[in-house]
């Protein structure tokens, strides 16, 4: 099997016609229907190629599966066009030329680009009005594409569609900011088919295009003539005369409805609707017509209408008109159609009958009730209705027609569309001339509009039925057959108008055409006869007539206007004469010609004679219009044409003819010129030659004016075809020489001669050429002598010209006639003469130079430049003048234009004009470069000229340029200038970014020039003393900026655009990269020059390496290895700095890290300098930095989170890197500011303060001066630190973290007081500090802070950002943000992420490694641990002060999961209820510089059922206690909550209450099964006892404040409580009910602990009530409480408890739970039963004196849980409890969680300090052995310190505390009541002083 390769030119395109699957054929590709493939090779049955949509998909496929068509490369197609066609991803269209296929390709690609653009526009600006407009334009382009690809379009319409498509594309591209498409003749061009300067000019012209919204209206404006094609189809519904079967006559015409004077624009054309249903101008023919030569003014969109006047043909009374009955034409109706509907209509369907027409319905309104008089107004009435859109479809019919517009010359249209001009197509002329009249066009038409008449009724009872008959009669009375009623009629001898039934005021408004020769006009006149018609009379009775002569008494045709004609009543004799004339008999001269015909201007004629009598009250109105190239209505023009009749007054005739209007004069230009040249050659007029010359200048001057520019080609056509005066050239040269010499001193004539100088010389050359066949040598010599005299006169003129140089414009006119002069004179002679003329122009005035340059511009484009003999002369002249202007910096705009024309002319023929190219480049490149650097307004065009020069320069020419400059310094300056200019072209964006084709071409030239300069750089700027650092640096920067241009980043373009650009010049970045690397290596080989460019060139080379092109990267990266070897520290630091800058700006990707690591390590593998380890560490750090920068950039550009959490986290990663990995202080400061701003922007003010504190902590209070940074000006170190502190204090204030701001205030106050002594600032700062303190404890409880919520968030899966993948975090949220808010925020940030069902468990490995997104969210509780801050407090601390530290500066967090083990005991679930506790540790405390932090360690342990029960009971006690405090403070509160709580606790119906706990844990079986829980069970019993006491106090309070209606409930609760108490005592004989209520004050007493929940025992410690002992630091809770503090029992608390995250908002005051030491032994407590009426008061507690002693408890190393605030027994007798240690020692029962099982019980003793008079007593209890407490936790007597609560019993799983680290405890322990984190203690509203 032999494969045949196809060449690029013969390459084929195939369309897949059905699906093909490759199956087992490895080399094959899959095809789907309509896939386009490019066929590169072929063999029998198979093709090999690739998909046009994706070149990567290539292979073989069967030939039967594709339809193949070869690329039709036309002769005119350029290589660029073939490439555009080949690489455009479209489906080829059959039946189109190559140029049309290119248009379709471009249109399809444009629509694809527009779709992407509007999609982006919709995303960014969905409300942009441009969006809807572009969408409409896309729909229009799709319709245009459908029409354009139709196979049966006319060439005219295809051209129009092509123009409209390209205009719309260019307009849309400009509006959307897409690339500008350069075009030549509507076809886009590429960079290889045109010179750079020409392409630059094309872009300039394209850029000036602003309309873009091109429709047929805009297209028709580009033509002078327009034509309307009409095809009549049907009447809808079919309308016949009301009775009879008469015919209908439909007259179509174009009507200009002007409110002032409506008039017909065209002739009328008639279509008959016959009674048998056929239609046409003749029966059986389809009716078509063409309205030709319409002007743009005629097609005014508002006033142009196509009207159809419908007449019925028959008898007057609607009877049939055959069988000898006369047929009359009666009005029937009128139809109109606005032509704007035709002009604005969309293009028709592809397969329309004519291919370009569209169907329209003309609104037809018939007259009603035979009122013929309405017909006169029906047209205007209907037009007004159409304008106002008030047409009622029920009242009107329709004339259905097909219309189409054609544009251009009618002869060209007839040639291109012969199918439109059949025999049946009626050509309908315009009532007037077209804008342009051809020289050979002859027209002699006279139009008469029979408008209206007014007649008297006379003696008749009714108005007449009047018919007007128009005849043309000569002076002998003979009627001439020259009248046509419409365009389809043959000329006849008369025309009969319509008959208006019973109307004496008929308004016909009918137009007829009279065709006479010019000789017949002076002897003919019109006669209009009026006849009365009747069905009863067989003949029409003549009763009056009017007439009008066609020529007036001055010999001119009757004027164009409305004429009011006299109506004459003939005598009987005259009637016979008129009737005889009508019957065809030759009569005598009419008698009425002696009578006046116009009643408005009768003149000297009489009004009556013996044959006729004028009717004074009757008149006729007609409008006449002359359309003739032979006849005129101007008397001066008539006299001019008849000049021989009055030759003596020829001067006067010539002067008068110059007063003729331009329209009239140009209309008769052929006859006028013929007459002038006849005078010139006539010997009788030889003395009048100056006047004749002036008349010739007069008419030629009109052709140069703006209003008559369309006649200029007609004059030139006349010279070529009609001019036939071979002798006038000598006389014209004589007259021109006379004017140039200034003999007549006529300045105006001189200006006119200059204006038409080119036309004059065309006449001269044409005359001499006509004379050439008959001339002899002597005649030729005379011509040459005349030309020599002309040049001398011209040189004399320009040499002695005036100051303004206005006469020099004649030189530019001379250049215009060079094509004609070359027919008679040799090129070198002509060039020499003209060159001498140019050189004699003086240089003293800048205006002279302007005229020179304008002349040179035309000279370059003249035929002289095409002739080799004259080219050198022209080139020398141009070079000298351009060089002069460049050196003197004058007329640079014209210089740029001339030079561009010169270079474009040379570029087109660069293969044959190498010498000329060398001359121009050698002489002009240096001054041109200098001029560009100095700058000018035309610098962009001059740059285009320079680029064109460089594009023509190869190595040999560049060498010649250098050799031309002998001086080395000049060569160096030239090279340096070129480097600077090329850099400026790129850096200063001299070329707009959307000029992509020009940019690619310019860059290809810059690439080749840079390569040419490389050897010059080595030769002139490297060796020895020639080394120039600046030039080399500029050279390197040129290469770098070239590579980084946006227009060269091919990967950013669409596939088709990328393939097209690559096909032109490849990837120029790679080529320039090799040049850059080679030059760097050359620099290295010549010595130690590289150190000069380190580290300054690190950044530029890094920019190149970051370009996402693999080959380029592999080329450049080794440069960094060499740099690192030269100066490791500097280069590494510069790399880090530049990477940070470049990556943030959008450069680089992750693949650069791999390439950098690979190439550097490859280079280091062979290194023997011992730096490999250092280099490896540096490369790894840089790789890590790239990852961090890439993550930061991704989050910066694409973060969807409104809070920007991930962006702040990535910023923190960079901050850590620059602080810990590579110390870069400036970058560290930069990201500190960024993180501060991000935190502040999103409302995290506390985090912003901590962030700025990082920077502030590095400063000292010194006078050292600091430089300016991103946020601060240059200032002293203490000033900056002061500024930082003030900002931090403000941030802490906004974040409501006033505790953190106060130490800063103190430090700053000390600085103000002791160092700068600024007491004003100190005063303000102290006031500010006081304000912060007031905010901590506000007077208004509503202003108190709410606690923060903490959540654990874990991210799993590889789809998350890398710094989030498979990591978990603790995030701090505000008090109102629940879990749903966190989930919602995550869903908004990661819409594809899924929530895992388990909130805490780590997912399976598949989910961890999958390319999906999973996350977990769960709320956690902060574990602040034991606090030493308030351990020495001498009085109770307000909970608003202490509560802040419970949820701030936290690193440990817990989460509990409940479960039953081994099975769920449904009878008593407390037996099997366990809790799995997770303890999480974060990297940093929260809050910190971020509001979330990564979890670095997670541990878990299991709480046993007894521990769970102890926690629950402690929480319940705390809750009840706080509620009672609230009700005690406000006894007016709603008692519903109190009653429900007491009832639910005393009579527990759900979980069974205390009896269920007793059943589960009090049994001997449980004690035997769990002996290790003995101490824990003891604590639980103490908690139950306290619970019973709280219930007792609750009932007492409920009875006190309860309402009368609640008495039954109270009594019932008391009974239930007695039952409950008896049950408790059954299992716990030591249970005693102790009242916690003070008898004296009626208030409650509470003792609290500031400890928090530990990892082992969260909120579960129980403070036992020990008999005979009091607790220290007693808080006397008054009856009035803080609203927030008493929230658990007040209305505020109930609102707070509605959300679980607010439960920590109510924290009571913390107190140290220490024993009370009294001076005397405590009195025994006497228990007494309550009386019968007060049996609710179970116990009464008298007030006892208390003396406090201080004790500092030892703190342990493990985090112990906080004890819930409890109501300890104070000032009353305590129940007696045996003690072995005496009265001054208190033992505390304590439990502990260790890693192993519990050891045998030991005794832990707390030694309590005592007074000197007291004896120390201790009591020992059994508990596990604990290690010795650390030294720092020894007991101190200085201040009272909180004691650590005991931990719960040890579980069977591991704990974070080692067993050896357990602290020793005193022997006697007091069971404490545990506190609950969710049920905090209550802060009193105010504290009363104790009574003395």
Radius of gyration: 55 Å
Name the structural class: alpha+beta
Our measurement of the CA-to-CA distance between the termini, rounded to an integer number of angstroms, reads 121 Å
Count, helices? 56
Query: Percent range for helical residues?
Result: 40-55%
- Which assembly state applies to the chains in this document? single chain
Low-confidence stretches: 72-82, 85-92, 210-222, 346-354, 1636-1892
Instruction: Label the overall shape.
Output: extended
The average pLDDT value, as a whole number, equals 76
In short:
By secondary structure, this protein is an alpha+beta fold.
Task: Describe the protein.
There is one protein chain. By secondary structure, this protein is of the alpha+beta class. The chain has 56 helices and 43 strands. The strands form 10 sheets. Strands 9, 10, 11, 12, 13, 14, 15, 16, 17, 18 and 19 form an 11-stranded mixed beta sheet that branches. Strands 1, 2, 3, 4, 5 and 6 form a 6-stranded antiparallel beta sheet that branches. A hairpin with a 2-residue loop joins β3 (36-43) and β4 (46-51). The protein is extended, with a radius of gyration of 55 Å. The chain starts with a strand and ends in a 68-residue tail after the last strand. Mean pLDDT is 76; it is low at 72-82, 85-92, 210-222, 346-354 and 1636-1892.
């Amino acid at each position: 099997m032999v494969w045949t390769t196809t060449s690029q030119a013969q390459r084929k395109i195939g369309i897949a016609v059905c699906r093909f699957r490759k199956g087992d054929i490895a080399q094959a590709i899959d095809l789907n229907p309509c896939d386009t493939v490019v066929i590169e090779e072929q063999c029998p049955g198979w093709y090999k190629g690739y998909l046009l949509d994706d070149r990567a998909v290539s292979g073989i496929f069967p030939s039967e599966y594709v339809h193949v068509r070869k690329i039709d490369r036309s002769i005119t197609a350029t290589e660029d066009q073939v490439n555009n066609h080949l690489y455009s991803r479209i489906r080829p269209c059959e039946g189109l030329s190559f140029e049309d296929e290119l248009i379709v390709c471009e249109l399809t690609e444009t629509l694809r680009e527009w779709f992407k653009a509007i999609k982006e526009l919709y995303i960014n600006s969905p409300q942009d009005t441009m969006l809807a407009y572009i969408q409409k334009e896309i729909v229009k382009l799709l319709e245009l594409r459908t029409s354009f690809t139709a196979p049966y379009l006319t060439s005219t319409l295809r051209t129009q569609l092509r123009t409209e498509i390209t205009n719309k594309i260019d307009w849309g591209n400009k509006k959307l900011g897409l690339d500008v498409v350069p075009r030549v003749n509507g076809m886009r061009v590429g960079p290889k088919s045109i010179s750079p300067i020409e392409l630059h000019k094309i872009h300039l012209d394209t850029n000036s295009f602003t309309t873009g919204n091109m429709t047929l209206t805009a297209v028709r404006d580009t033509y002078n003539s327009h034509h309307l094609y009409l095809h009549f189809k049907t009447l809808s519904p079919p309308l016949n005369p009301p009775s009879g079967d008469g015919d209908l006559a439909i007259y179509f015409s174009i009507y200009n409805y002007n409110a002032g004077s409506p008039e017909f624009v065209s002739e009328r054309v008639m279509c008959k609707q016959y009674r048998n249903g056929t239609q046409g101008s003749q029966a059986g023919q389809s009716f078509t017509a063409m309205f030709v030569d319409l002007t743009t003014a005629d097609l005014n969109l508002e006033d142009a209408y196509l009207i159809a006047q419908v007449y019925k043909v028959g008898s007057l009374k609607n009877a049939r008109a055959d069988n000898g009955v006369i047929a009359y034409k009666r009005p029937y109706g009128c139809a109109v159609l606005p032509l704007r509907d035709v002009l604005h209509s969309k293009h028709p369907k592809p397969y329309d009958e004519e291919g370009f027409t569209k169907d329209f319905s003309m609104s037809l309104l018939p007259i009603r009730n035979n009122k013929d008089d309405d017909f006169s107004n029906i047209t205007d009435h209907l037009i007004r209705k159409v304008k106002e859109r008030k047409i009622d479809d029920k009242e009107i019919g329709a004339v259905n027609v097909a219309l189409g517009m054609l544009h251009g010359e009618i002869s060209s249209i007839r040639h291109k569309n012969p199918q439109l001009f059949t025999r049946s197509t009626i050509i309908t002329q315009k009532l007037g001339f077209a804008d342009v009249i051809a020289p050979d066009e002859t027209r002699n038409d006279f139009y008469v509009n029979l408008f209206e008449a007014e007649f008297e009724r006379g003696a008749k009872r009714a108005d007449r039925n009047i018919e007007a008959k128009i005849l043309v009669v000569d002076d002998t009375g003979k009627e001439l057959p020259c009248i046509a009623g419409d365009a389809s009629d043959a000329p006849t001898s008369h025309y009969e108008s319509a008959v208006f039934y019973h109307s004496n005021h008929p308004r016909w408004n009918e137009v007829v055409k009279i065709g006479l020769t010019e000789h017949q006009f002076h002897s003919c006149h019109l006669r209009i006869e009026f006849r009365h018609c009747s069905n009863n009379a067989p003949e029409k009775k003549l009763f009056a007539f009017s007439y009008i002569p066609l020529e007036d008494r001055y010999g001119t045709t009757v004027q164009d206007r409305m004429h009011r004609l006299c109506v004459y009543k003939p005598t009987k004799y005259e009637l016979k004469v008129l009737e005889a004339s009508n019957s065809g008999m030759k009569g005598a001269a009419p008698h009425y010609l002696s009578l006046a015909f116009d009643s408005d201007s009768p003149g000297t004629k009489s009004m009556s004679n013996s044959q006729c009598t004028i009717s004074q009250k009757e008149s006729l109105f007609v409008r006449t219009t002359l359309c003739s190239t032979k006849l005129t209505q101007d008397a001066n023009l008539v006299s001019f044409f008849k000049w021989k009749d009055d030759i003596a007054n020829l001067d006067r005739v010539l002067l008068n003819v110059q007063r003729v209007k331009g329209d009239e004069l140009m209309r008769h230009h052929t006859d006028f010129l013929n007459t002038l040249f006849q005078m010139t050659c006539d010997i009788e007029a030889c003395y009048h030659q100056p006047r004749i010359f002036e008349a010739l200048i007069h008419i030629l001057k009109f052709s140069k004016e703006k209003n008559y520019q369309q006649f200029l080609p007609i004059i030139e056509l006349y010279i070529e075809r009609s001019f036939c005066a071979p002798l006038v050239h000598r006389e014209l040269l004589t007259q021109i020489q006379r004017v140039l010499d200034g003999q007549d001193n006529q300045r105006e004539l001189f200006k006119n001669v200059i204006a038409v100088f080119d036309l004059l010389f065309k006449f001269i050359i044409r005359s001499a050429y006509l004379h050439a066949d008959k001339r002899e040598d002597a005649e030729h010599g005379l011509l040459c002598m005349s030309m020599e005299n002309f040049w001398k006169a011209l040189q004399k003129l320009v040499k002695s010209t005036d100051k303004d140089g206005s006469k020099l414009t004649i030189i530019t006119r001379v250049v215009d006639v060079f094509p004609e002069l070359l027919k008679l004179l040799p090129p070198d002679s002509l060039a020499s003469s003209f060159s001498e003329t140019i050189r004699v122009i003086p240089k003293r005035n800048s205006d002279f130079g302007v005229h020179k340059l304008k002349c040179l511009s035309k000279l370059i484009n003249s035929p002289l430049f095409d002739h080799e003999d004259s080219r050198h002369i022209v080139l020398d002249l141009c070079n000298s003048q351009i060089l002069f202007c460049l050196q003197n910096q004058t007329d640079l705009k014209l210089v740029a234009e001339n030079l561009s024309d010169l270079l474009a002319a040379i570029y087109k023929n660069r293969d044959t004009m190498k010498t000329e190219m060398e001359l121009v480049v050698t002489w002009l490149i240096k001054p041109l470069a200098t001029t560009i650097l100095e700058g000018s307004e035309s610098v962009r065009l001059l740059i285009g000229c320079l680029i064109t020069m460089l594009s023509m320069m190869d190595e040999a020419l560049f060498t010649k340029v250098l050799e031309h400059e002998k001086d080395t310094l000049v060569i160096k300056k030239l090279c340096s200038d070129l480097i600077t200019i090329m850099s400026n072209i790129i850096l200063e964006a001299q070329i707009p970014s959307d000029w992509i084709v020009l940019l690619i071409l310019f860059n290809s030239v810059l690439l080749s020039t840079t390569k040419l300069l490389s050897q010059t750089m080595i030769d002139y700027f490297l060796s020895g003393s020639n080394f120039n650092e600046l030039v080399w640096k500029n050279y390197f920067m040129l290469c770098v900026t070239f590579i980084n241009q946006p227009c060269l980043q091919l990967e950013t373009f669409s596939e088709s655009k990328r393939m097209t650009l690559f096909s032109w010049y490849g990837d120029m970045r790679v080529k320039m990269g090799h040049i850059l690397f080679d030059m760097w290596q050359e620099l290295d080989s010549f010595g130690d020059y590289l150190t000069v460019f380190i580290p300054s060139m690190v950044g530029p080379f890094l920019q190149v390496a970051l370009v996402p092109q693999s080959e380029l990267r592999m080329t450049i990266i080794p440069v960094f290895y060499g740099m690192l070897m030269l100066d490791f520290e500097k280069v590494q630091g510069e790399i880090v700095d530049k990477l940070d800058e470049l990556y943030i700006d959008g450069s680089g990707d992750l693949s650069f890290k791999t390439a950098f690591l690979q190439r550097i390590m490859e280079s280091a593998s062979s290194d023997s300098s011992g730096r490999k380890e250092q280099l490896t560490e540096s490369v790894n750090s840089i790789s890590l930095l790239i990852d961090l920068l890439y993550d930061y950039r991704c989050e910066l550009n694409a973060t969807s989170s409104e809070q920007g959490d991930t962006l702040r986290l990535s910023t923190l990663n960079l901050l850590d890197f620059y602080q810990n990995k590579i110390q870069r202080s400036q970058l560290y400061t930069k990201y500190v500011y960024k993180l501060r701003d991000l935190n502040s922007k999103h409302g995290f003010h506390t985090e912003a303060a901590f962030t700025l504190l990082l920077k502030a902590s590095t400063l000292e209070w010194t006078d050292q001066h600091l430089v300016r940074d991103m946020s601060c000006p240059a200032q002293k170190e203490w000033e900056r630190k002061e500024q930082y502190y003030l900002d931090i204090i403000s941030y802490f204030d906004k974040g409501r973290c006033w505790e953190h701001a106060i130490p800063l205030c103190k430090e700053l106050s000390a600085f103000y007081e002791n160092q700068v002594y600024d007491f004003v600032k100190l005063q303000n700062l102290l006031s500010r500090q006081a304000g912060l303190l007031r905010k901590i404890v506000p007077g208004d409880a509503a202003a108190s802070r709410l606690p923060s919520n903490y959540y654990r968030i874990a991210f799993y899966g590889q789809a998350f950002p890398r710094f989030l993948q498979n990591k978990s975090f603790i995030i701090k949220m505000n008090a109102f943000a629940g879990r749903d808010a966190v989930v919602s925020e995550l869903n908004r940030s990661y819409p594809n992420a899924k929530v895992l069902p388990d909130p805490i468990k780590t997912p399976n490995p598949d989910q961890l490694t999958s390319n999906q997104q999973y996350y977990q969210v769960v709320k956690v509780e902060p574990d602040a641990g034991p606090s030493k801050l308030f351990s020495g407090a001498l009085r109770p601390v307000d909970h608003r002060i202490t509560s802040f530290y419970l949820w701030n500066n936290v690193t440990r967090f817990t989460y509990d999961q409940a479960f039953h083990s081994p099975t769920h005991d449904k009878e008593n679930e407390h037996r099997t209820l366990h809790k799995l506790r997770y303890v999480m540790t974060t990297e940093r405390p929260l809050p910190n510089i971020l509001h979330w932090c990564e979890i670095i360690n997670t541990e878990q342990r299991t709480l046993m059922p007894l521990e769970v029960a102890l926690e629950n009971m402690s929480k319940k006690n705390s809750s009840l206690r706080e509620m009672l405090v609230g009700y005690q403070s406000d006894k007016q509160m709603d008692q519903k909550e109190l009653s429900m709580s007491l009832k639910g606790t005393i009579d527990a119906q759900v979980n069974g209450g205390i009896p269920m706990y007793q059943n589960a844990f009090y049994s001997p079986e449980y004690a035997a099964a769990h002996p290790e829980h003995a101490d824990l069970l003891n604590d639980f019993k103490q908690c139950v006892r306290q619970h019973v006491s709280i219930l007792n106090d609750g009932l007492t309070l409920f009875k006190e404040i309860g309402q009368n209606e609640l008495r039954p409930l109270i009594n019932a609760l008391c009974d239930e409580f007695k039952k409950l108490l008896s049950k408790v005592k059954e299992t716990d004989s030591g249970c005693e009910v102790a009242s916690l209520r003070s008898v004296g004050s009626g208030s409650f007493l509470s003792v609290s602990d500031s400890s928090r929940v530990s990892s082992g025992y969260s909120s579960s410690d129980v403070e036992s009530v020990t008999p005979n002992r009091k607790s220290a630091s007693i808080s006397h809770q008054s009856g009035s409480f803080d609203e927030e503090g008493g929230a658990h029992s007040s209305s505020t608390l109930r609102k707070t408890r509605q959300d679980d995250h607010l439960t920590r908002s109510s924290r009571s005051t913390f107190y140290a739970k220490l024993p009370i030491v009294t001076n005397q032994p405590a009195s025994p407590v006497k228990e007494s039963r309550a009386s019968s009426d007060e049996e609710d008061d179970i116990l009464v507690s008298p007030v006892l004196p208390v003396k406090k002693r201080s004790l500092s408890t030892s703190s342990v190393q493990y985090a112990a849980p906080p004890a819930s605030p409890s109501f300890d027994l104070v000032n009353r007798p305590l129940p007696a409890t045996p003690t072995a240690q005496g009265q001054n020692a208190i033992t505390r029962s304590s439990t502990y969680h260790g890693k192993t099982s519990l050891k045998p019980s030991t005794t832990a003793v707390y030694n309590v300090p005592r007074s000197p008079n007291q004896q120390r007593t201790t009591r020992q209890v059994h508990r596990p052995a604990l290690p010795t407490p650390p030294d720092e936790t020894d007991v101190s007597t200085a201040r009272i310190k909180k004691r650590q609560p005991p931990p719960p019993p040890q579980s069977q799983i591991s704990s974070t505390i080692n067993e050896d680290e357990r602290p020793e405890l005193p022997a006697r322990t007091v069971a404490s009541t545990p506190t609950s984190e969710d049920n905090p203690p209550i802060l009193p509203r105010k504290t009363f002083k104790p009574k003395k």
